[in-house]
Design a protein that fits this description.
alpha+beta, 30% helix, globular
């Protein structure tokens, strides 16, 4: 990768004059500075065995304690199960209309359940709601068996995804979170999982934000009520998952959005009833009261154009893979740098979605977030006849 060069075309949703200025400035490095007017606010005391507060926009950690300590996740495990479901929906290996049949084994899951009977068939959408809203252990196993052939094979997928995300302190042995001494995670890992989910599958919030759902009609009606009370207690909350066992205590991986800023809070090992909600509110309040987020580019914005060698087009536009923005602590000195790097000597063929550059945000010489720049279109390799025609047109235009 190299720094932005002269032949890099920069774009922004600005008037021409400002766009030209932005081009020149981004080609070097931008520095923003605010005056330091107050002491940094300190995180509140949190009555949890471990916790993390993270920016869902940049991935920055705003507060943490015992974040890498091993804890039992309980039903927050289901967040990974749902991530794998969303991944399968995206790659087309599953659809929401797929019919899932409950096995005898799945129907026998204890703990939290949606009371699926052996042989009962439900759509994947209903099963996903049963997991997200009703925290159904039986629904988790039914889907796991459908996707991987067995829960054990699905657990291998869970651990593989955990490794891919960088969850170094996590090991799963089931798809639902019922207690097992070998089934553990950390607050830091659960925050990383939530961040991954929100960056890649924000549509998951359509399910985790459902508060009430009629899962089974007469003659045996079952209404599911979301176990995450923050959906009603805290403005802007739309996910993600609670968890409780006597061994784990009360856990909550929550997310809320206010004023164009989204936060992730994780509390684990809370003991008092409803304490995981109250402690999460403390963390979320701290984040929203003391930080702001300024979006520079939205996901999908075209930022620049880079040269392509031996392609049917001489340039390819690059767009942001996710939102790009700066998280700033209110009333604090925030000297922030933004830089663009692009790949050297890009050769055709190029496929849409290829990562060809990156926008990096740094503070005090330390990189704090980075967003990939991806090709917006395909650029096939030019053929010899096409090359001849291009050269002939160039010659004729000169004449």
């Amino acid at each position: 990768m190299q720094k932005v060069q002269k032949n890099l075309k920069i774009f922004a949703a600005l008037p021409l004059m400002f766009a030209l200025v932005l081009t020149a400035v981004l080609a070097a490095v931008l520095t923003l500075a605010d005056s330091n007017t107050a002491e940094a606010a300190q995180p509140p005391p949190v009555d949890a065995a471990s916790y993390v507060l993270m920016s869902a926009d940049t991935g920055e950690i705003l507060a943490e304690e015992n974040a890498d300590a091993a804890r039992f996740p309980a039903s927050t495990t289901k967040l990974m199960t749902m991530v794998l479901i969303m991944e399968a929906l995206e790659n087309g290996s599953l659809t929401l209309d797929d019919q899932i049949t409950t096995s005898e084994f799945a129907s026998g899951m204890g703990g939290s359940q949606v009371y699926l009977e052996a042989g009962e068939t439900r759509s994947l959408k209903e099963m996903l709601i049963g997991i997200a809203v009703g925290s159904g252990n039986d629904a988790c196993v039914a889907v796991a068996e459908h996707m991987a052939g067995s829960e054990e094979a699905f657990v291998d997928m869970m651990n593989g995804k955990a490794k891919e995300i960088g969850m170094k302190g996590t090991h799963f042995v089931n798809a639902h979170g019922l207690h097992d001494e070998k089934h553990y995670t950390t607050a830091a890992d659960m925050a990383a999982l939530a961040y991954y989910a929100l960056q890649n599958y924000p549509q998951l919030l359509e399910y985790t934000s459902i508060y009430e759902y009629q899962f089974r009609p007469e003659p045996k009606p079952l209404v599911l009520w979301n176990t995450n009370k923050l959906l009603k207690w805290y403005e802007g909350t739309d996910g993600l998952k609670t968890g409780y066992t006597s061994n784990a205590g009360r856990n909550l991986v929550a997310t809320a959005s206010r004023n164009d800023m989204r936060l992730i809070s994780v509390v684990m090992g809370v003991q008092p009833k409803n304490g995981h909600f109250k402690e999460s509110i403390k963390l979320l309040d701290y984040g929203f009261n003391n930080y702001t987020y300024d979006k520079i580019f939205a996901k999908g914005d075209v930022v620049c154009s880079v040269p392509v060698e031996k392609g049917t087009a001489s340039y390819v536009d690059l767009m942001t893979a996710n939102d790009v923005g700066i998280l700033t602590e209110k009333n604090q000195n925030s000297e922030t740098e933004r830089s663009i790097t692009v790949s050297d000597n890009i050769q055709a063929p190029v496929q849409a979605g290829d990562v060809l550059g990156q926008i990096t945000i740094s503070r005090g010489g330390e990189d704090i977030s980075a967003v990939d720049l991806i090709a917006i279109t395909d650029v096939p390799k030019i053929s010899l006849p096409q090359m001849f025609l291009r050269n002939l047109q160039a010659v004729l235009s000169i004449g």
